[in-house]
Amino acid sequence: MENLHDKRKVYEKSQLIESEIKQNPIEQFRDWFLDASENPAVSEANAMAVSTLEEDGCPRTRMVLLKEYTYEGFIFYTNYNSRKGKAIQNNHKACLHFFWPNMERQIIIKADLEKIAENLSDGYFHSRPKGSQLGAAVSPQSQVIPNKEFLEEKLKELEKQYENTEVPRPAHWGGYIAKPYEIEFWQGRPNRLHDRIIYELDGLDWKISRLAP
């Protein structure tokens, strides 16, 4: 047993006040994301946790890389037959979470997910390194496999098959766009009086409120 009661830190690097925030949460996200991208202490600013609801009613969370964001939403790519893909098919809602501990910041996004257009998935797929393309094609993501060698052998076969030709995007692999309806920005503050600003979509407008920490 290990007592973790005294493992705590003081948050004091910044603050989040209403007079300085953007009225649109995507613009506020852009400002924070650029700060994180330019911070040498943050290794992957676009790494985010994506939580979906599985058939047994339990949420499941995994790390995914954000590949694009627009005023419409946040885009990432995956295997549509994976556990997350099947969960999204059954329940289109998900939660995205960014955590940048060196900046004492986190962002929590509740969103509706839908597949992006196939031509957009094609464009991103073919922009990836060929090894990544082959990896996406060879892996039956989330399915039980007999051993590690199973994938390595399949990869060798595909490398030979597509040695001098383009790798086609698998029909079961592509992008999702997460269209937000709630975004919370959290900034650590001293004495646990953290700043929490939440944007909630109300029709076409965003309602801005402060939450108690």
UniProtKB/TrEMBL annotation:
Any matching Pfam family: PNP_phzG_C
InterPro entries named in the record: Pyridox_Oxase (IPR000659), Pyridox_Oxase_CS (IPR019740), Pyridox_Oxase_N (IPR011576), Pyridoxamine_oxidase_dimer_C (IPR019576), Split_barrel_FMN-bd (IPR012349)
Residue span(s) of domain Pyridoxine 5'-phosphate oxidase dimerisation C-terminal: 173-213
Keyword annotations from UniProtKB, A to Z: Flavoprotein, FMN, Oxidoreductase, Pyridoxine biosynthesis
Pathway per the UniProt entry: Cofactor metabolism; pyridoxal 5'-phosphate salvage; pyridoxal 5'-phosphate from pyridoxamine 5'-phosphate: step 1/1; Cofactor metabolism; pyridoxal 5'-phosphate salvage; pyridoxal 5'-phosphate from pyridoxine 5'-phosphate: step 1/1
Binding residue positions for FMN: 62-67, 77-78, 83-84, 106, 141-142, 186, 196
Any one GO MF annotation of this record: pyridoxamine phosphate oxidase activity
Enzyme Commission number(s) from the entry: 1.4.3.5
Comment on bound cofactor: Binds 1 FMN per subunit.
Residue ranges of domain Pyridoxamine 5'-phosphate oxidase N-terminal in the record: 41-160
Cofactors demanded by this protein: FMN
Biological function: Catalyzes the oxidation of either pyridoxine 5'-phosphate (PNP) or pyridoxamine 5'-phosphate (PMP) into pyridoxal 5'-phosphate (PLP).
Name of the protein this chain belongs to: Pyridoxine/pyridoxamine 5'-phosphate oxidase
Organism: Chryseobacterium endalhagicum
Gene: pdxH
